[in-house]
Design brief:
The chain is an alpha+beta fold.
């Protein structure tokens, strides 16, 4: 799922502050959310979340080879 869609789902759950991090370890900023793909998340799917809890690990679309 792209980063923008993931953020939309989190916001639909009533949480408006989440963080995304570059899963490659290069520390790149996610300026355009649509060209990043979520490859991992904390907490796991289905867990209760509050403001600031969601952390989405992402890679650029062209780096993602599928899970």
């Amino acid at each position: 799922m792209d980063l923008l869609a993931a953020q939309d789902i989190i916001q639909a759950a009533g949480v408006f502050y989440s963080t995304s991090v570059d899963a490659s370890g290069q520390g790149r900023a996610q300026v355009w959310d649509r060209n990043w793909v979520v490859v991992d998340q904390t907490p796991s799917v289905g867990a209760s979340i509050g403001e600031g809890d969601p952390v989405l690990s992402v890679l650029k679309e062209d780096e993602f080879s599928g899970c």
